[in-house]
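Deliverable D5.2: sample structural annotation.
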Amino acid sequence: MSARIVPLLATADLVPIALSYGLVPGSSIPVLLGFPVVRTNQTHVFRAIMGLYLANALFWLAAASKPELQRPALWVLFYFCRDLLLCVH
């Protein structure tokens, strides 16, 4: 795959996930993760996660149009996916 297409696909995949975490965590998190969000602090944590995911997506989107950012964006994508895998296992 082209170094330009990969960040675009990652952005398209990550934005809905980020929005599902942060837009209405009180109703989406019990469905997605199986526990209720009962405190304001929990809501803020999930909104912060949304912000971090959206920042990654914006970086990947910028990298799709700027060739000098493509290699760093691919490394960020690699580490992002690796860390998600390490959290699951």
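Annotation notes: DSSP finds four helices and no strands in the chain. The helical segments are 5-22, 25-33, 40-65, 70-88.
The annotation will be released with the project's public dataset once the embargo ends.
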